[in-house]
Amino acid sequence: MNNRCISGLKLGAGVAFALLAGLCASPSRSQEKPATQLVMAKILVTVEGDKDKQPPELKREDVLAKVGKERMATKHWEAAKGQYADLALFVVIDDVLDPSVGGLFGDIREFIKGQPPTTLIGIAYTRNGTVSVAQDLTNDHEAAAKALRLPSGNAGTYGNPYLSLTSLIKKWPGHGGRKEILLITDGIDRMRQKSGRMDYMAPSTDVTTASDAAKRAGILVYSFYARGVGHLTRTNSAAASGGQSRLAKLADETGADSYFLGYGDPVSFKPYLDDFQTVLNNQYWLAFHIKPDSKPALKRIDVSTEVSGAEIVSANNIFIPAAK
Question: Which domains, from first to last, does the chain contain?
Fold first, then answer.
């Protein structure tokens, strides 16, 4: 682990959220008692514009957040820039991918090298339902770019990208800023799926587990579809479609996006990465006070705005810590 990089940016994020807590604190004695009964919940969201246009800048009063049916009073709305810009991003590559996809890795290397110093990059590979970290989170972007290698074209005995993802989330190092994953895979669970068409399209408990783990950790999971080796993605459209559906579900539930074009590899990852960069440039921290339960819980959240030309994308659940 690059301790220097982690500790430096972790301190910055900690200071930022100390300021966040200060913004939400009440200065009057009449409000002190309610504040002690509440906890602060925060969530990272993305503001998107209409038809690929730059979205308008939203103010705190433009944002409507509901947890369940209860409307929350937005206490904090801050663009993920400046003191709030810190980002920890893991690029995760499925080892089942056809090694020919390596011809597109130049786009990923250029993307990594173009990130600001406030962005930590990690590189990992999935295999056998686990994850192998090739490069710990670091702001040495040259080192991160060099850690990319061709996928082996072998998923191992337990090829399941969702189990691998859950494993990575459980090992995620402490970081107070944005936490995001870019997963490059065909999305197919080779460990559990059978040969029937309905098996490939059936709901997956492993996707649900990975989604819930990501939401509890506050991690957004983006994905690029690429073709794996073997007959499943070459001759079985049901398997490929099922993989894409599961990736889309994971992205949608965590407040992210999934990218794919048909069942083959894209000509270039650059259009995907350009769009992903636009997303990173338009993220915001939303925070509010809420009455907690006795145990930590994921609760349904809806975030919206009535400002024309803007849409707010968020996870479908927010993690609420337990009452103290």
Answer: 3-82+284-320 (no CATH), 86-279 (3.40.50.410)
